[in-house]
Amino acid sequence: MGSNAQRVNLLEYLRSKSQVDCDSLDIPLFTELGPFVDCTSNQADSYLELLNPQRAALLKKSAALAREITSDFPGVPFEKLAVEISMISVSLTLVPLITGVIHVMSDPTLVTTQEIFESVKRIHSLTHRLDPAFDINRLCIKVVATWEGLQACRKLSSIGIKTLATTLFTIEQAILAGEAGCIYIAPFLHELKAFFDDSLIRRSYKDDGPILGLCVEAQDYYRRFSYQTRVKAAGGLTVEEVLAIAGVDSLTIAPALLRTLSEADELEETVKDLSLFEKEDSTKAKQIEHLSFVNDEAGFREAFSKANGGQGVTKTQQVIKFCIMFKAFRTLTDKQAIDIFSEYQLKGEALMRDTDLTRIGP
Question: Residues 259-275: pLDDT tens digits?
Answer without folding.
Answer: 999 999 999 999 999 99
